[in-house]
């Protein structure tokens, strides 16, 4: 999944042209969505892209239900909410999806964010105030998301093995925090290389700056794919 983190549609369009023909999901996050809006997302779908709309909803259940309903009508393949919103909020997201299906939309995967991959052990304990290891918090959220009926979670690849053991192999793992060897880590904390991530069994990797910030995004993505094929 390539993260289209751009301030406007033009930047994303340039990347789409550069990556043309390479099969991958396109992830639209807050920066691009707030600038280019639902029309950009619908246009991606009309052009045949698989789309992950990464808006990480976290609000009262009724509001998330409405948001999920609107997102489902855009025809995206995957969208997400924060597991920290609780079980009722995640169930409300699914109700929003169901209501859109009766209006003819297709069913997206609904995924819960566990702990952001930028969150370190120290930040979790000392700033956010959650005690215990990161993996324990991630698993608590993953189990809650599964009980609520969601399709999977966003987590670090470092937690994939434990999530699959706790929630089953069919429970999807979408993992940002991917950094090819030698790449700038930036604000990420819990990282793995693409080869390590595929070895632990991640279902989808989310990769942004190692591709978008490369002199040739196409060559960067092709090099990542080559790394994966060698595993
Ligand atoms: O826990 C999370 C959830 C979402 N993200 C998003 O993934 C990409 C990662 O981009 P990089 O440039 O490869 O760091 C970005 O859009 C985040 O919003 C995440 O990193 N961690």
UniProtKB/TrEMBL annotation:
Keywords: Decarboxylase, Lyase, Pyrimidine biosynthesis. Coiled coil: none annotated. Pfam families: OMPdecase. One of its GO terms (cellular component) is cytosol. It is an enzyme of class 4 (lyase). Substrate binds at residues 5, 27, 54-63, 117, 179, 188, 208-209. Pathway: Pyrimidine metabolism; UMP biosynthesis via de novo pathway; UMP from orotate: step 2/2. GO terms for biological process: 'de novo' pyrimidine nucleobase biosynthetic process; 'de novo' UMP biosynthetic process. It catalyses: orotidine 5'-phosphate + H(+) = UMP + CO2. Residues 1-224 form the Orotidine 5'-phosphate decarboxylase domain. Homodimer. Belongs to the OMP decarboxylase family. Type 1 subfamily. PANTHER family: OROTIDINE 5'-PHOSPHATE DECARBOXYLASE. This is Orotidine 5'-phosphate decarboxylase. It comes from Paenibacillus cellulosilyticus.
């Amino acid at each position: 999944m390539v993260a289209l983190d751009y301030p406007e549609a033009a930047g994303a369009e340039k990347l789409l042209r550069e990556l043309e023909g390479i099969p991958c999901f396109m992830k639209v996050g807050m920066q691009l969505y707030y600038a280019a809006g639902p029309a950009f997302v619908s246009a991606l779908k009309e052009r045949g892209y698989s789309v992950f709309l990464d808006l990480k909803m976290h609000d009262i259940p009724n509001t998330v239900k409405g948001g999920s309903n609107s997102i489902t009508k855009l025809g995206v393949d995957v969208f997400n909410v924060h597991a920290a919103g609780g079980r009722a909020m995640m169930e409300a997201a699914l109700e929003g999806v169901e209501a859109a299906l009766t209006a003819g939309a297709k069913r997206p995967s609904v995924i819960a964010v566990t702990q952001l991959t930028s969150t370190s052990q120290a930040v979790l304990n000392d700033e956010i105030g959650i005690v215990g290891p990161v993996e324990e918090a991630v698993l608590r959220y993953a189990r809650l998301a599964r009980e609520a009926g969601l399709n999977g979670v966003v987590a670090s690849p470092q937690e994939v093995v434990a999530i699959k053991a706790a929630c089953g192999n069919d429970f999807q793992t979408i993992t940002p925090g991917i950094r090819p060897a030698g790449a700038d880590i930036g604000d990420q904390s819990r990282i793995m290389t693409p080869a390590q991530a595929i070895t632990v069994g991640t279902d989808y990797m989310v990769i942004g700056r190692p591709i978008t910030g490369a002199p040739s995004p196409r060559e960067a993505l092709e090099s990542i794919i080559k790394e994966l094929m060698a595993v």
